[in-house]
Design a protein that fits this description.
By secondary structure, the chain is mainly alpha-helical. Helix content is 44%, strand content 7%. The relative contact order is 0.13.
Length: 133
Amino acid sequence: MARHIRNGRAFTLIELMIAMAVVSILVSVAVPMFNKALIRGKETILRQNLFAMRTVIDEYTYDKGKAPQTLEDLVTAGYLRKIPIDPITNSDRTWRIIMEDASNAVNQSEPGIFDVRSGADKMSLEGTPYSEW
């Protein structure tokens, strides 16, 4: 009979179930917050990449007297080391290029890139499409 007496060191099934319920509640709150933080990080990187590319497009246009024809022109001329990756699409080939209007171009015979935007078709956390940034 002495073998069947509980020594108080083990957990009961109810205690384990309560602990699992608490852990699952904490995880269900933490995972969405973590995902939102990841998206905010990607949005910050996208803003920085867009700012950098727009700045070097302007510098290239000012220095060369004409706008670049492709993003690769910026790399070839040494304004960028490489074309940045769009963090939303995870590719450097999905950038949407906005070309100059020929009548407003610096060099009207060769209109080039005026602006660049994300090629993502998703909505930001703010509710605006990434393609409009």
